[in-house]
Specification:
The complex is a heterodimer. By secondary structure, chain A is α/β, with parallel strands linked by helices. Chain A contains 8 helices and 9 strands. Chain A has a 5-stranded parallel β-sheet, with helices on both faces. Chain A has a 4-stranded antiparallel β-sheet with strand order 2-1-4-3, sandwiched between helices. In chain A, α4 (129-136) packs parallel to α5. Chain A is elongated, with a radius of gyration of 20 Å. The two termini of chain A are 39 Å apart. Chain B has helices at 11-23, 66-79, and strands at 28-37, 47-51, 56-58, 83-88, 104-112. Chain B has one domain (11-112). Mean pLDDT of chain B is 83; it is low at 1-5. Chain B is of the alpha+beta class. In chain B, β2 and β3 (56-58) form a beta hairpin. Chain B has a 5-stranded antiparallel β-sheet with strand order 3-2-1-5-4, with helices on both faces. Chain B contains 2 helices and 5 strands. Classes of the chains: A alpha/beta, B alpha+beta. Chains A and B meet through α1 and β4 of A and α1, β1 and β5 of B.
Chain lengths: 232, 113
């Protein structure tokens, strides 16, 4: 690997850009492919397609090309989970998500909720969710989990998340409160297709009761969306 | 453990260490898991960076073959020729280091710079 390739790779990581390192296993020739950008005119089309697929499933692979075997190593941006609502469930969820490899950001405009005592070491944003989410920029490696119990806050977060590339959007609430939420979002002009992206009631149905158990069910569902992006 | 709780260092940590060693004018090699068969401890794409003194960071197996990979990497740093290494239980004559889990891995070792 040339030093320049290493430095470019590090720069892409810093810019949170998805990049695939393609290495010819015979010649050790290497190129960087950007699966979600259009800057790869000189690169073989088969290789671009394979790199896109590899980036999408977040898994390296080897492909046969006329020039021999090429190994594709995927460097996707880090995973992030944005938790809207500094509520009870958010406490165990933030810790679990961090252990699972997510950079966690907790957003809540209510100062009494979003305190460092309740969320030791977590990045806290005491802001309105829509503003915070716009600032944070929701890319395809971001999960948005809205847990505020407050329609004003949840709806404002969801409206932004639904127009983003976030790979997961979930909102806490019973079937009944979710149905009400769907109505409110429709009044805001969102279509059914958009609203259907929301996982609500949030989490896998594992009979969770306590805040920690609900956090497990949420993290399980987020994991499923991350690892099986095609299914829903 | 790094701060995220992941027991293995991230891609970033490995690449940054490699860049740091380069900046210190050291010879550096990068090892990458390019294929696995059966149960292998580290997934395809896992990285290990090695400097000319035999220091390393990252992981290609969870510990069982790192020693052998580091030894090969020192060769690669000298020669500049990349290598493809196969490790596995079936490969008992070539390598003393086997994978306890019974899997097989193929590892690319290349010099940086």
């Amino acid at each position: 690997m040339r030093s320049e390739t290493l430095y470019r790779l590090l720069d892409d990581r810093a810019q949170k850009r998805s990049v695939v390192l393609a290495t010819n296993l015979k010649s050790n020739e290497q190129i960087l492919i950007y699966p979600f950008d259009n800057n790869t005119k000189t690169v073989n089309k088969i290789l671009i397609k394979a790199a896109c697929e590899a980036a999408h499933v977040d898994k390296g692979r080897t492909v046969e090309t006329p020039d021999g075997e090429v190994f594709l190593n995927v460097f996707n941006p880090p995973l992030r989970m944005i938790i809207v609502g500094a509520v009870h469930i958010s406490q165990p969820l933030s810790v679990m998500a961090e252990v699972a490899g997510y950079q966690v950001i907790v957003v809540d405009p209510r100062r009494a909720f979003a305190t460092p005592e309740r969320f030791p070491g977590m990045e806290l944003r005491i802001e309105w969710p829509d503003e915070a989410l716009e600032e944070l920029g929701l890319d395809r490696r971001t999960a948005v989990v809205s847990l505020t119990h407050d329609p004003k806050l949840d709806d404002s977060a969801l409206s932004v998340a639904l127009h983003s590339e976030a790979f997961y959007i979930g909102a806490l609430g019973s079937k009944r409160s979710h149905a009400k939420r769907v109505e409110r979002l429709k009044e805001r002009g969102l279509t059914d297709d958009f609203i259907a992206q929301i996982h609500g009631p949030i989490g896998l149905d594992i009979g969770a009761r306590s805040p920690s158990e609900i956090a497990v069910s949420i993290l399980a569902q987020v994991t499923e969306r991350l690892r099986r992006p095609g299914l829903s | 453990m790094n701060p995220t709780g992941d027991p293995y260092p991230s891609h970033d940590a490995v690449l940054e260490q490699a860049a740091q060693w380069k900046a210190d004018n050291k010879g550096v090699a990068l090892a990458t898991v390019v294929a696995t068969w059966g149960s292998s401890p580290r997934p395809v794409g896992s990285l290990l960076a090695i400097d000319e003194g035999g220091q390393f960071t990252g992981s290609v197996s969870g510990g069982c073959i790192e020693g052998a990979v580091v030894a090969e990497a020192l060769d690669v740093i000298q020669s500049g020729e990349h290598k493809l290494l196969d490790f596995g239980v079936s490969d008992d004559n070539a390598w003393e280091a086997g994978l306890t889990c019974g899997g097989e891995v193929r590892i690319l070792v290349e010099r940086i710079g």
